Amino acid sequence: MVSRNYKGERMRCPTEEQILEAAKESNVEEALKKLFPEVFTEYFYLPHGRIESDDQAIELGLGSVSLVVRGSGPFKNKAFCLSKQINWEIVDDGTLLVLVPTKK
Fold first, then answer.
1. What radius of gyration do the chain's Cα atoms show?
2. Residue 23 above 60 pLDDT?
3. Confidence at residue 21, expressed as pLDDT on a 0 to 100 scale
4. 77: left (phi over 0), alpha (psi -120 to 50) or beta
5. Does residue 37 contact residue 95 with C-beta atoms inside 8 Å?
6. Cα dihedral 25/27/31/37 (nearest 10)
């Protein structure tokens, strides 16, 4: 069964079996992780396309992440500024190098 989250996006509903299994947990967070593992991922959900405004980035949980060129210091005009509130990793996916933001 599929329902929609608060943003109107499709979301899987747990089965009766999954609910009964999660109910055996004494820790609420662990029970919720069993029911909705996608909520507890370290990754941000990034919709396909461009993040074109700080408001859009903030709504995704990224804060202000505009790729801004460094304007001072030894990397002036040679690098981008990235938020320290997010872990950033450059990964080779076999075709391209991709910049992956993950939650701290």
1. 18
2. yes
3. 83
4. left
5. no
6. -140
Report, as an integer, the average pLDDT of 31-58: 72
CB 103 within 8 A of CB 42: yes
The values of phi and psi at residue 77, to 5°, are 60, 20
Domain residue spans of the chain: 1-40, 42-104
CA distance 10 to 12: 7
| Mean pLDDT of all residues belonging to the chain | 77
Q: Which two tokens stand for residue 92?
A: 């080779």
- List Cβ neighbours of 50 (8 Å cut-off, separation of 6 or more): none
Residue type, 10: R
**CA-to-CA distance for 21 and 35, rounded, in angstroms?**
9
